[in-house]
Amino acid sequence: MPTRRTVLAATAAGAALAGLPAPVHAVPAERRAYRWRTVVIGGTGFVTGILFHPTTPGLAYARTDIGGAYRWDQDTARWTPLTDHLGWDDWNLLGVEALAVDPAHPDRLYLALGTYAQPWAGNGALLRSEDRGGTWHRTDLPVRLGANEDGRGTGERLLVDPRDSDTLWLGTRHDGLLKSTDRGATWVRQAGFPVTPTDSGQGVTLLLAAGRTVHAGWGDGDGTPAHPNLYRTTDGTTWEPVPGQPTGASAKVPVRAAHDPHTRALYVTYADAPGPNGQTTGSVHKLDTATGTWTDVTPAVPGGTDTFGYGGVAVAARRPGTVVVSTNNRWAAVDTLYRSIDGGRSWVSLKDTAVLDVSETPYLTWGEDEPKFGWWIQAVAVDPYDSAHVLFGTGATVYGTRDLVHWAPRVRGLEETSVRQLISPPAGEAHLISGNGDIGVLHHERLTASPKRGMATNPVFGTATGLALAAAKPSYVVRTGWGDHGNGAFSADGGRTWAPFPAQPAPAKDAPGPIAVSADGGVLLWTFVHGPAHRSADGGAGWSEVPTCPQGATPVADPVDPAVFYAYDAYTGTLHASTDHGRTFTARATGLPSGDSQFQLAAAPGRTGDLWLCTKENGLYRSTDGGARFAKVGGVRAGHTLGFGKAAPGARYPAVYLVGVTDSAPAVLRSDDEARTWVRVNDDAHQWGWTGQAVTGDPRVHGRVYLATNGRGIQYGEPA
Question: Count of domains in the chain?
Answer without folding.
Answer: 2
